[in-house]
Amino acid sequence: MIRCIRLWTGEDNNSYFEEGVIDLNLKNNRGDELSSAFTAQTISFQETSEGGKYDWHNDPVRQIVITLTGTLDFVTRNNEHFTINPGDILLAEDSTGTGHSWKLIGSAPWKRAYIILAPGAAVAFKANKA
After folding, report:
1. Domain count, the chain
2. Which tens digits make up the pLDDT trace of 28-40?
3. What does the pLDDT read at residue 117?
4. pTM exceeds cut of 0.85
5. Alpha helix (H) ranges present in the chain?
6. Distance CA 116, CA 65 (A)
7. Who's near 16: CB < 8 A, 6+ residues apart?
8. Which of 8, 42, 89, 106 has its CA 20 to 30 A from that of 82?
9. 15 bridge partner residues
C-alpha cells in the first residue's frame, strides 16, 4: 500500500487530516497491485529549497501532491501535526476554511508533483481504521 494523508475542511471551517493508503485493489497481468484510475486535469512539478515554509493557506484546488524528496511538518489551526515523507501522497481537499501551514524538516529540498484532479474525480483513498 502507498501511504496517503487526506486533508479536508470540516463543518467548523477548520482543516483536518486522516492517515490512510491508496487502495491497491486491482492486479494486472504481471501480478502487480494497482489502484483504480482517476481523472486528472494537469500535472506540474515544484521544488522548495532547504528551510522552506509556507504560512497559513488553503489549497487552490482539489489535488494530489506526491513528495519525491524532503520531509515536511504540516500543522492545522487546531495545532494537529502530521509528517509527509518521500514517497507519501497528500490528497489535498481543504480549498476553503482556516487552512494549514507547513515547514521543511532537515536539509533536503522538497521536490514534488502536483496532480490537479478533474471535478468529481474519485480517488482510491482508504482511511486507516482507528
Report:
1. 1
2. 989 899 999 999 9
3. 97
4. yes
5. none
6. 9
7. 7, 8, 9, 10, 76, 78, 80
8. 42
9. 9
User: What is the distance between the alpha carbons of residues 62 and 8, in angstroms, rounded to a whole number?
Assistant: 9
Q: Average pLDDT of 11-31?
A: 94
Residue 45: CATH number of its domain: 2.60.120.10
pLDDT tier at 130 (50, 70, 90 boundaries)?
low
CA 43 to each of CA 27, 46, 97, 120: distance values in angstroms, whole numbers, following the listed order: 25, 10, 25, 17
Q: What is the mean pLDDT of residues 95-113?
A: 96
- Quickly tell me which residue has 501480478 as its cell: 31
- Could you tell me the three cell numbers for 77? 489551526
Separation CA 9–CA 24 (nearest Å): 26
**Helix and strand numbers, DSSP H then E, in the chain:** 0, 13
- pLDDT, residue 129, reads 84
- For 65, the 3-state DSSP assignment is strand
Q: What is the DSSP letter of 66?
A: E
Residues 6+ apart with CB under 8 A from 119: none
